[in-house]
Amino acid sequence: MKIAMGLLVLVVLLVGLVLALPFLIDLNKYQDQYKPLIEDALNRKVQLQDIRLTIWPRIGVRVESFSVLDDPAFGTGPIASLSSLEVGVKLMPLLSSKVEVEEITLRQPVITVIKNQKGVLNISTIGRKGVPVPEKPSRAPIPSTEGPLKILALLAVDRVSIEGGKLTYRDLSAAKPTEYVLQDLEVLLQSVRLGQTPSVHFGSLVQPFNLPVKLDGTFGPLRETMDIDAINFQLGVGKTDFTITGKAAGNDAIVNISSPVINTANLPIALPLKTPVEIKDLQISAEVMGQEAKLKSLAFRLFDGEVKGQGKLIAGSDMPPFKGAVAIQGLQLGPALNAVAETPISISGTAGADLSVQGRGFSMPDLTKALEGTGHLAVKDGKIEGVNLLQEVVSALNVAGISLGDAKATAFSTIETDLAVKQGVLKVQRLLMDSHDFQATGGGTIGFDQRLNLAVNLNLSQEVSQKIAAASPVVKIALKDGRLSLPLTITGTAQAPAYGVDVKGLSAKVQEQVKKKVEEAVGGLLKGTTKPEDIQKEGKELLKGLFGQ
Description:
The protein is of the alpha+beta class. It has eleven helices and 24 strands. It has a domain at 19-218 and 232-237. The protein is 23% helix and 47% strand. A hairpin with a 5-residue loop joins strand 1 and strand 2 (60-69).
């Protein structure tokens, strides 16, 4: 009985001693030893209020009010802070004098990323001791293998979690400073050990869009070199889901992205569209090699058509050079144009196109200056809504009382043209338009500012030609082989186009016909087949036709 009581007292004393350890051992006095190690690893000053041992719910260490100060070039406040950091270790290895971390929990972390007016990020020197803040922004920063990524790879922990965090990104380089916030952060990493493949869960609410974002998947296995053999993520952005796969080695990476459907109304960015657009069966395969990014393949369905493309971009400059190619088949042009812009005139039909471009930069001034390319466009079985080209010709000729087809539309079977882009101008070359009532050929330019300068030759059908000629003596004289060919100009802008008949061109045709008749008359007179009184009669009829008298 005495032995049992002795053992019980010993157990109670041991338990009491263990429970008293957090109060008996003050880890704060060791700050001078471990703080410099942390500051050296992060290249930042750190602050912490209290650090102590924990027994429950697991053996470990709890750090209260931990902060990492910002680079002095950006401010004196913290770049990151958290209410507490808890590190739990496994009991059995600890009894064998081994420390194996079981769990790390960060509670209510607050992180602030700032881009200054020069375009430099305050995180650009984290983990890079002795590296000053750059004077110019880096368009393609090379990740440091001595920073947080390597720290993650060297961790040996079963579980890393973030609860109730907040990440703020503040851009002061723009003309109008902007701020985006990831609030209600929840992060869970599991199996974070060298040689293992961690699983990740991420969730947040993005402001000011009030957009939920969720990421789940795996990546790994982890190595000290940070090479990743396999990346498998499922990303949810609002109502849009993406599948992301790939791999990485050093500064190179291969990424594949797919999505069954993307509705632009559900995206967090404002696109220059008048109506929402659905992109279906998106497939992207990209490769990054240093500062060179290759879009190996792009494919999706849009407006019942198929779009495929590829391209290349080299980062590292204010105006990164790029080149690419796009092929389109079976696209319904009417809904596509209506989604882009509202104009008095729209074109419907089934469109196909091939376009190759190259340039530097992505702002409108850069594109206007440097964008170049060539291509081909074809539209089948469509209609130009908002204008009747034949009626515009009749109006330009001042012919009254003639109505030709739909007053507000021009139907066609084919529109084909070659295209060339250079210095902010789209050149339309070898334009061909086939319609039941006419055929049009020509070309011209369309500016990035939407200014039009097109000249086409309308070769009207015999039926339409005779109908117009019956009401216009001048047109009647200009007929050739029973058909009328009219030079039409289209100027103005895409919002307000103006149509006109090239009077000089029409006069030339009239002169040609008059010259032909004169030559025929003189030839007949010399051969004796035409009498002088017949020439006089034909001359009167010709003048009567010209002047209507």
